[in-house]
Amino acid sequence: MLPRLLLLLPLFVGLPTAAHAHSDASMFGAPSAAAQHDHDDRAAPRHPATLSFDPRHLVNVVIKINARITRLNNLYVGKRVARNEVLGEMESAELETVQATYLGLFRNMDAVQSFSMTGNEKLIDARMNLRWRGMSENDIKQMERAREPLKRIKITAPESGFIYAVNVVNNQILNTGAPVGQYTATGTTILTLARPAAIQIETSLPIDVARGLKPGQRMTVHVADARRGEVALPAVVQQIFAFANPVNQRQRVRLKLAGNPPKGVALPAGLQASVSLEEPDHAH
């Protein structure tokens, strides 16, 4: 029996010793990948936040004539639009009449100037009337070239920004009523735009975190996008409110975006987000 054991002993001695070693480097003092990830998360915690808009930077798009909305160009709350971008179209018998009056003066401008010293002033005033009633400069030039009233009038964005509210639908009739004076009709607000400066991010941070912040400090706002997934937006601290909530020991902080978000990212009012103290390049 003893000779057999002596013969098998070299086989056990020759087995690879690595099979008995633990593959986790943490047993030698080095952190594992999971531990490193947990450390990163602890280094940059996120706090819930909500998007809001400063009402001082809201712009109404108002139609001041009786008209019908014939087309809206895929308008939705949070959509980003550019200045002079076509938002939709409308048609108005009232505006066609005003166009015809303007064209009568425009076609006969030479004859009007021959017997009237105020011919140019009349044309300028008639042009202002068209602009006030919703015609863009491009529409007026197109009408002058065609020498005919335009049936459909483009509705354009007066400024760049984000759609804050949409108040109309396709084929809706707008009845603004009778104007009081030439340019004082209230009109119908069909949508509201928010300038980029209107976007605010409201959050409540633990007192010890808020105490270490200062206006202008860089942070990151994380929002969810249907196409891109999570999007990290650079932001800066705008205001640190003085009073803290004694119940949850948190302090209100307001941020503002440091630039325009990527095109196509919708930012509606009330959107739930999160904020972290790191800059976007270091955000996870």
UniProtKB/TrEMBL annotation:
A Gene Ontology cellular-component term: outer membrane-bounded periplasmic space
Single Gene Ontology BP annotation: copper ion export
Residues spanning the signal sequence: 1-21
GO molecular function: transition metal ion binding
InterPro entries named in the record: MFP_Cation_Efflux
Keyword terms of this UniProt record: Signal, Transport
Region annotation (Disordered) ranges: 30-49
Protein name per UniProt: Uncharacterized protein
